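RECORD TYPE: inverse folding
INPUT: structure tokens
STRUCTURE:
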């Protein structure tokens, strides 16, 4: 798993691993490589450190699988020497869910609304900072897209995971966080204020937070993710893993876990998920080119 412990995807995937372990009658091991299926945290690099293991090191026997998210699809278009191609170097097994993204500030921030924050950024170029879970992540690119549309300049402060970004905002070291809903407990407790959400509709849990669409950006950002393994996996193994993970995803237990973070079901079967990755790779190439973002100069 490519994120820090305690992040929304970490919690959700750990629960899926536990459910899969019960269903398969085999240990799905977290934190180490001793068991048949590995659930190991490899945080950093925008959540892509695990991709080299899947694409170049792991055997295609079904014993090592990992999270496939859009930063993995996108990264080859950000560097001069790509280490993988998401369309050819993986076996895409199942589409699972996505994230509730939003922008949150500390409760004592002077910004009551997203529009007030943008106005301040326009009046003070390059002064406001925002935290994300890494360079060229979906949330980072969305903020760069907003900045380009508004003709404002932010300071981007990347962390290894969203939980670290929340800590930075609460400590006053960063002005705001633009990331998945690890900020939600702090918003509910009154320690942070939510300025907007990036879903298509307002979120019932945070009814006062406007969507990006309502703010005039015509953007919906949920960054759907799934599970993939090394290339050339046996179709029978893929089918077993797909069916097991689907049952876990649809279970009442995983539904409760996802509800903690307002993570929607974005289920795609194996064929659908493979097609999604092909189409999304073309889109990611276009947006990276349009925004002119590179990670190696």
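DESIGNED SEQUENCE:
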């Amino acid at each position: 798993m490519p994120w820090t412990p305690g992040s929304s995807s970490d919690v959700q995937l750990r629960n899926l691993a536990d459910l899969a372990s019960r269903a398969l009658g085999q240990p799905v091991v977290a934190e180490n490589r001793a068991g048949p299926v590995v659930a190991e945290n490899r945080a950093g690099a925008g959540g892509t450190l695990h991709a080299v293991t899947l694409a170049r090191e792991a055997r295609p026997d079904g014993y090592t699988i990992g999270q496939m998210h859009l930063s993995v699809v996108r990264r080859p278009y950000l560097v001069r020497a790509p280490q993988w191609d998401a369309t050819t170097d993986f076996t895409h097994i199942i589409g699972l869910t996505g994230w509730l993204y939003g922008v949150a500030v500390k409760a004592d921030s002077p910004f009551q609304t997203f529009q007030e924050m943008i106005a301040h950024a326009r009046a003070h170029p390059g002064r406001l900072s925002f935290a994300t879970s890494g360079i060229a992540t979906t949330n980072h690119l969305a903020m760069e897209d907003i900045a380009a549309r508004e003709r404002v300049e932010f300071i981007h402060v990347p962390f290894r995971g969203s939980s670290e970004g929340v800590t930075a905002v609460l400590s006053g070291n960063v002005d705001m966080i633009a990331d998945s809903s690890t900020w939600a407990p702090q918003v509910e407790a009154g320690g942070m204020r939510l300025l907007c959400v990036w879903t298509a509709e307002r979120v019932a849990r945070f009814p006062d937070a406007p969507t990006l669409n309502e703010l005039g950006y015509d953007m919906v950002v949920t960054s759907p993710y799934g599970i993939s393994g090394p290339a050339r996996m046996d179709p029978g193994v893929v089918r077993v893993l797909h069916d097991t993970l689907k049952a876990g995803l649809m279970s009442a237990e995983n539904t409760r876990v996802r509800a903690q973070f307002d993570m929607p079901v974005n289920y795609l079967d194996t064929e659908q998920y493979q097609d999604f990755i092909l189409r999304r790779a073309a889109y990611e190439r276009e947006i990276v080119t349009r925004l002119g973002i590179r990670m190696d100069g």
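NOTES: DSSP finds ten helices and eleven strands in the chain.
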